[in-house]
Amino acid sequence: MTNGWVDMKNTDMMLIMGGNPAENHPCGFKWPIEAKRTRGAKMISVDPRFTRTSAVADLFCQIRAGTDIAFLGGVIRYALENNCIAKDYLVNFTNAAFIVRSDFKLPADTDGVFSGLNAATQSYDRSTWNYAGAGGGAHPDSVATYAPGQAAHGANPPAPTLPEKVEYDLTLQNPNCVFQLLKKHYSRYTPEMVERITGIPKEQFLKAAELYTSIRKDGDMKKAGTIIYAVGWTQHTFGTQIIRTAAILQLLLGNVGRAGGGVNALRGHSNIQGATDMAGLFDNLPGYLKVPTPADASLEAWMKRITPTASKPASWDSFNYYSNTPKFAVSYLKALYGDAATKQNSWAFDYLPKVDRNYSWVQMWDDMYNGTVKGMLAFGMNGVAIGPDSKKNIDALKKADFLVVGEIYPDETSEFWKSPGITKDEMKQIQTTVYRLPCAGFAEKDGSFTNSARWVLWKNTALPTPGDCRVDQAIVAQIFLKIRELYKKDSGKFPDPILNLTWNYSVPSSPPLAEVLKEINGKALADLEDPATKQQIKAGQQLPGFAWLKDDGTTSCGNWIYSGSFTEAGNQTARRDPSDPSGLGLHLGWGWSWPANRRVLYNRASCDVDGKPWDPTRKQVWWNEGQQKWVGNDVPDFKVDSKPKDHMGPFIMNPEGVGRLFAPLAAFADGPFSEFYEPIESPIDNPLHPQQTHNPVVKRFKTPDDKYGTPKDGYTVVCTTYRLTELYHYWTKNNPMNVQLVPEPFVEIAAEMAQEMGLTGGEKVKVTSIRGEYIAKAMVTKRIKPMMIDGKKVYQIGIPIHQGYRGIAEDEGKDARTLVNLLTPTVFDPNAYTPEFKGFLVKLEKA
Amino acid sequence: MSEHADQILPHGRVLRYPFGERLNHWIAAFSYIYLLLTGLAFWSPWLFWIAVLMGGGQISRTLHPWAGLIFFYAVARMHGYWSAQMKNTEVDKQWWRSISHYVQNEDDKMPPAGRYNAGQKALFWSFFYAAIVLLLTGIVLWFPEWIPWNLRWLRYISVFLHPVAALFTIANFLIHIYMSAFAERGAFGSVIHGDVTLHFAKRYHPAWYDEIVRRANAPRK
Amino acid sequence: MSQETLRIQKISGHAGSVPGEDTQRQYTVCKLIDTTTCIGCKACEVACMEWNDLPFGETVFDNSYQTMPETRWNYWNLILFNEHEREDGSLMWLMRKNQCMHCAEPGCLAACPSDGAIVQYTNGIVDFQQDKCIGCGYCITGCPFNIPKFNKETKRVYKCTLCTDRVSQGLEPACIKSCPTGCLHFGSKDDMKYLAEQRAKQLRDHYNFPKAGVYDPPGVGGTGVIYVLHDASQPELYGGLPKDPRIPLSVKLWKGPLKWLGNIAMVGGLIGLFAHYLRYGPKEREEEAKEPHEGAQP
Amino acid sequence: MASSRRDFLKIGAVGGTAAAVFGFDLKPAFAQLRELKIERANETRSTCPYCAVGCGTIIYTIGDRAKNVTAQVVHVEGDPDHPTNRGTLCPKGSSLQQEIMNDRRLLKPLVRRPGGTEWEDISWDDAISEIARRVKKTRDETFVEKDAAGHTVNRLESIAWIGGCTDTNEFNYLVVKAMHALGVVHLENQARV
Prior knowledge:
The complex is a heterotetramer.
Chain B: E1 8-9, E2 13-15, H1 19-43, H2 48-53, H3 57-82, H4 90-97, H5 99-103, H6 118-142, H7 152-183, H8 187-190, E3 195-197, H9 198-204, H10 206-217
Antiparallel strand pairs in B: 1-2, 2-3
Chain C: H1 2-5, E1 8-11, E2 29-34, H2 43-51, E3 78-85, E4 91-98, H3 107-111, E5 118-121, E6 126-128, H4 138-142, E7 149-151, E8 156-158, H5 164-167, H6 174-178, E9 184-188, H7 189-206, E10 213-215, E11 225-229, H8 249-255, H9 257-280, H10 286-290
Parallel strand pairs in C: 2-11
Antiparallel strand pairs in C: 1-5, 2-9, 3-4, 5-6, 7-8, 10-11
Helix pairs in contact in C: 8-9
Chain D: H1 5-21, E1 42-47, E2 56-62, E3 72-78, H2 91-94, H3 96-100, E4 110-112, E5 120-121, H4 124-142, E6 144-146, E7 152-163, H5 169-182, E8 184-189
Parallel strand pairs in D: 7-8
Antiparallel strand pairs in D: 1-2, 2-3, 4-5, 6-7
């Protein structure tokens, strides 16, 4: 989230799409409701079915799953056509005025793809996706993308670079400026086209577009609108591009950085935000540093590749905060390897594994299926149930040597070897050793969670673990220490990183988490002094924040964005001051928020060019002429002493300093603008360009378990999966209170469709995709309606995901003991590598 | 020797109620009294102490319907024993017309009553029909949780009719007690010993007396 | 504990005066349920179950998001889900939290024969005292909202207590506290009435619900649970919320006129019979009865 | 004969009944207010482990943290001070008490041997030692020090870590740290899906 949960109470308009917060984030949803109650805000819900969110929305549009780009593209077009855009914001805070290279081509001109597609490798040569300008070569691209499959095992081609001095046209008239390209690109998303693709009747769409853009009617900047989404957007083969479209719309309307505005991702789990921050994903190091590739032959090469330099109109300023990347990286290496990381060995750079191909979730199961991955450690992660294509995951586990599961309840993954359909004889053939270790529940351990609003909140231990359970950190520490002991005793491959890893916790076999947080925050390894303020920090002291980090080995920091979370003043994430003097819901004294405890990102953009808030009733930060610095109710997300007349861009993490309507070069794998493509399994050809139906860079897997259905095979019904508020993932099926609320799995089916099938509510129905089948009772409802898609009648169904083959109801034999993810396809978004759980094809019959 | 009704006994007595009928009467009586007491406890807060006396509200509530079943069983038996004798006759109509004489103990001015006078017949039928109403409404009240919400009118009717029918029986019951225990000497003994004196028969049921005497004097076969 | 007697204003099946009647300053508590912001998340259902330690009950899928068809003895708080199409074709998914309404004139209490089994505190909470419940089920009949539910094992009746244990300690009821969207609100009746009317006005003026209004039925003297409805003219749409709930007529007749008539009749009857005995005596004097009998001797 | 306490209670009950006969029910005819079940329970501030709203919760445990008490959770409710949830909880958060005190919890380490059809008990020491040996063996067999082009890669492609949604930041950090030291690159998390 760019903003925060409580901040939503400041909004005037909400577009909730690809998410169902009433269902999945009820307690956060109080703030949208609060906005309705206290500000008279309006809420638009766009969803494949009428949800709990829709029940309290002011306008509902039923959209075909996976067509969100078409809808948002249509709204962008509407905003441009009807002058509902933030002109000053656009010119000064975005790259609207930047001029793009003349050889860049839009899909309208190149058969539905952007310029540079190599159809054979299914990848783009992105060198034309660049600004026109002088002094190129200064900035190497900061983002690598990892294609699925085996690594190229070769040197990366020299990365194309952004120009240092970008050409621009503040009148926005140049036909090759971003604004004009944007206008041209989205002009194809007419209300008629939106209707053909999404199934939303034109009048209904226009109502929604008119309502949402009404906050910027005639360019008036007082009001703010927010876009709220969740995995309904991310779980697509174009998921990142949907979010891009939303970001473009929000930049057009000048909503980013403002109270009650922003692009707000609602994360679905208590700490996947923290897991991402801490780099629990293969392509990151903590704090979103990009992992080194084999081609990064040295620390310097790696740093040169991932440290951007500014790229902007010559007269503007750009903070380009990522220019500090080397400080973050070296401090991280010092945290990992302590005294073993020296200037001589490039701070133990070689210890870091180098990555040049995709190792993400779906690829990982494919690698296990194909024999590369032999062992898996799954802690609190039910990989079989989560899918996609649970059968492939089960088949993969059958081929593994060992599986270690840390759980608090019996789960599908640890019992894959006795999943339904496996006979005793087949079981005897499965050679996988499975260890199932009893872990601690949330109440039995302390530590911090980072919520969706980036608030890092400490929790306390309420009681000890039951039975023989151990806290997770103890289990991992003990396994690691045992491995280290083995490497100490007998030699093995490359033991150095294992032997040299810092592990200086007071109880090494169960590291106290507060000590770990101190390590993450970072400390001075030598006496430091701030040259400007003369403030001093002694060696060994906790750092007050990431501004103190150094690239000379005098600081260590486990995660630069968390620097400031555990200072000399103590554990900042445990702070409990609920006060909120500004009334904007910032609560700066409650817990701690990364980065630097600021609560709304890009909040400099809440002011006009002169540093005055767009809306004086919602003052976040402002330029104080007397003090000659930025001050405010929030922590300014800006260089505090940068005068407005210096024209520094508010988007300080971008080398341009401004928001990217056009995302240049390798920022994205599949286009600098978003373009509508159909899901991999779609009922129709893409009405925009039938010859290019799908995202051209999405690759399919090739094992016998990887199958993809088409309408020709009889799979004509669009199916989407989702959660219910009563249940939590595959977890609460062990909790009687929650099972009582939803005792059995079900499939939501439109009344018209049920009538055609002769199906009544409560009867069992079999849903079949090309990969598997799922049996559950039918919920016949008016809340899903048949849709006219490109002149064709299309039905959608929806299936909640929560049941499996281990749980209270499952163990009592009360359901069919199948997993929804037996149905879902093994394809993923080329940018975020998130699988396409939403919008695949199935057929239905009575069971 | 087995007993049979209207058997003439030694010492100028006649068997009015054989053992089975007497027993049945007292089953009805005791169950009714239990029902009456517990029912009154539920009827008015001022009488709820009766339920406490009877073992507490819970026990009273639990046993009341069972007692009701017993009572209804006894009433049904009575119907089997006596319904034939309880048919209204021309004499009964005259009897009702002369009710004021009866009330003033001017029984000599009454038409001759048979084995049962019209008042007794009325009592019988009153209890019989009231018992049916009490049973039906009682079953509804017994199992309120079994009555679905859309049939709630059954409960609404029952909560009203049950006490109405009960009050009706109470009125009859009071008269019955008064007549049998206070007004008509010897009546009470008839449901204990089963027999009455011939004087009693003649005094209160002249037509019946004539019938007995006629039968007794008839030539023996 | 003795203080508590002063907090009671009505007692079921009770003879004599009520210890707390009109002896306390009144602070009537009230739940406000704004159905227009209810998302049917069932947090209140679970909070109720959890706080009151209500045991697990089997449920079955019934073509609805609704947990079960109606409340149970061990499930006091149930959200009712109803799909409703408006005249303009748009769909509404109406959700209403159903629980004891804590009527000012409670039908259950009126119908209950057991002394103290149902009480109403001065703060308006209608509370069942299971130790005094005799299991007659009259409260089920007396309630126009289908709330009290019978437990076949204990033979007693149970329902929402409005968390008397919490409220008496200065806490809000468990359901209120849990409600994520704030569609549940708790406070004094006057304050809740005010908030409800404000919200209804906002719905009428700003959100295209011209018939929005507040449900506080006068037929039962007003309730300790009030609703804001999108369409106050059709409360039935919300899972059969009665438009004009009243204590059933037969219960009123039974507990009112019939009671007086019956009492008068019974007492009158007794007196009448006694008077008759005094005036006329037995039909036969003792000496009369002892006269030697004439007539047939077998 | 000494009168036991039980007898005394019986006598009391009889006395009560006797008194009631005369219309005096000695038992007061007013409500027995239920006692607050958390009145003396211990409060621990925590965070809900489910979605990313990160609601503050208060976990109520019996016992006053004295040494001789094994704490039991009697109730969980929202933390009213927490700015985001302000005391509210959703249906999952409201049932957290049962999530913690749940008889389906796994309580001991188990192992399923190759070809096995049942779980077998295993001690913690054996489990950890076996796992460590397997990791080392697999690592030693498959560790890639240089790729085909001769670049140093120092990666381990044969072991995967998948992390859960409720792992704390600190645990995630420890895992990433340990896994990076091993060279693990198949490092994924619920965050991806």
